[in-house]
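Person: Show me a sequence?

Helper:
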Amino acid sequence: MPLYYYYFGVLNATLLFRTARWRPPLLSRHAARGCGHAPSYGKMAARALVQYVVLRGDLRREPLSWPLGALVAQACHAALAVTHAHYQHPDTAAYLDQGGSMRTVVLEAPDESALTTLAETLQQNSIDHKMWIEQPENIATCIVLRPYPKEEVHHHLKKFKLLK
């Protein structure tokens, strides 16, 4: 049996993971394209990149009572949108290169006004983010920041609690 196999076109590196030559696929792609922003693993230890997701907590409670799956879908849509929009940014590339070691923090905004206030604050401070607006209802559901070093953005988010 070979050390690897393809599953839906994706290399399963389960057995290759422990070899010294294995590198995450995205790192290999960045290096192959010569993008110049493929990180070294030593740098990543020094710069902890985090992607923050801020979901509206009031959507789960009465009178709205959204199902948990719908809220998770909102966060997924926004995370993909902000990652796509900032794919060429070196921090986004480095974050994606981490593979299973990516750090994501999910926070709760109490209501829509807290979410829009956060969006204004982020915009005033030139913090890249995406506010996801659910259509056709036109409801702001969450904000996701592109991956940032924690120390650069944490102070803008410290008033929000972890989503429970």
Observations:
- The two ends are 44 Å apart (CA to CA).
- The mean pLDDT is 81.
